[in-house]
Write a structure and sequence with these properties.
With about 325 residues, this protein is of the alpha/beta class. The protein has helices at about 60-65, 90-95, 120-130, 135-150, 155-160, 170-180, 200-215, 225-230, 250-255, 260-265; strands at about 15-25, 30-45, 45-50, 75-80, 85, 105, 185-190, 220-225, 235-240, 245-250, 315-320, 325. The strands form 2 sheets. The chain has an 8-stranded mixed beta sheet, sandwiched between helices. α4 (about 135-150) packs across α6. The longest helix has 18 residues, at about 200-215. It starts with 13 loop residues before the first strand and ends in a 5-residue tail after the last strand. The structure holds iron/sulfur cluster. Iron/sulfur cluster (SF4) binds near residues 300, 306 and 328.
Length: about 325
């Protein structure tokens, strides 16, 4: 069995629907359409990977899902339906009962989320007491259980340590334990391994995959590396300049990528099964300046297949089999 033939816990039940989401930043130089009409469904137990270079809109998509966009950003349109209820229309109180509880997030740098002045026990127990309505003793037992599940040795003692007393990999395990401690239905992981070295990265990805499968949690994984999503995700969305340029099942995307950008990303993943004599491929050029983007294919300056129409009009979405789709004039 290849890495792409993931055993999946995905069911048919859709728990999150993102519809035509638009998040713009109004700055002095113009309008940055950081997220421009993103649409996707997330099923119970599914892992969706959002892939793209820096500035493609991956993180803003997820901040928008949690309704955490701050000025000068503004969610200008679309819906984020969690079990049919639009998160973007909820009161602060309603959102508080979802964030950290039914939908939780883990970040690239655990130190930006962990309070360096508080013991892990204080940080975990407070959250569990607040969201799970447990007393302090039961919340501590739950926190220790989650740390053990996340592979923290001697969890009963280490729960009283401060964040700086853990290594980078162990801190990320603590974050995963915290993120999953309230049994969320959705875990949003924003580049959860890119600050770690390669061996620890693999361990953390295996841990996330194992724990979320056991708990039935759906995952939205943000990453710039297709290598990370290959062994982890059921579905992949490739983003470029605020839009999804290709979407499909992981196996279909790797087997038959459609968009030239996706093809470039796949070619640039190092392969252990290939001869090492060739230079690793890199996509030429730079991501576009996203301020006041013209209505053309933003990838055309870097695309070796670009045609005249690509410089004039944004390509329509073309659907293939099995939910696989892409926006590129080559197929329109
Ligand atoms: Fe290349 Fe044109 Fe397709 Fe854009 S629309 S990716 S420029 S071929």
């Amino acid at each position: 069995m290849s890495d792409l033939d993931n055993k999946t816990n995905m069911t048919d039940e859709v728990i999150l629907q993102v519809k035509k989401l638009q998040t713009y930043f109004h700055i002095d130089e113009g309008i940055v359409k950081a997220v421009d009409g993103i649409t996707f469904d997330l099923h119970k137990g599914e892992t969706v990977g959002i892939v793209g270079e820096s500035g493609s809109g991956k993180s803003v998509t997820n901040l928008s899902i949690m309704n955490l966009v701050t000025t000068p950003g503004k969610i200008e349109g679309g819906e984020v339906l969690f079990h049919g209820e639009d998160i973007l229309k909820m009161s602060d109180r309603e959102i508080q009962s979802i964030r950290g509880n039914k939908i939780s997030m883990i970040f690239q740098d655990p130190m930006s989320s962990l309070n360096p002045f508080l013991r892990i026990s204080t940080q975990m127990i407070e959250t569990i007491m607040l969201h799970q309505k447990l007393d302090k003793k039961a919340a501590k037992l739950k926190a220790i259980e989650m740390l053990k599940l996340a592979g923290i040795p001697a969890a009963e003692e280490r729960i009283d340590c401060y964040p700086h007393q853990f290594s980078g990999g162990m801190r990320q395990r603590v974050m995963i334990a915290m993120g999953l401690s309230c049994n969320p239905e959705i875990l949003i992981a924003d580049e959860p391994t890119s600050a770690l070295d390669v061996t620890i990265q693999a361990q953390i990805l295996d841990l996330m995959k194992d724990l979320t499968a056991r708990l039935g949690t759906a995952v939205i994984m943000i990453t710039h590396s297709l290598g990370v999503v290959a062994g982890m995700c059921d579905t992949i969305m490739v983003m470029y300049a605020g839009r999804v340029v290709e979407k499909g099942k992981t196996a279909d995307i790797f087997k038959e990528p459609k968009h030239p950008y996706t093809k470039g990303l796949i070619k640039s993943v190092p392969r252990l099964d290939k001869e090492n004599s060739e230079r690793l491929f890199s996509i030429s050029g730079q991501p576009p300046n996203v301020i006041d983007l013209p209505p053309c294919c933003p990838f055309y300056p870097r695309c070796h297949k670009a045609m005249d129409i690509c410089k004039k009009q944004y390509p329509p979405v073309q659907e293939f089999e099995n939910g696989h789709c892409s926006s590129c004039w080559l197929y329109a």
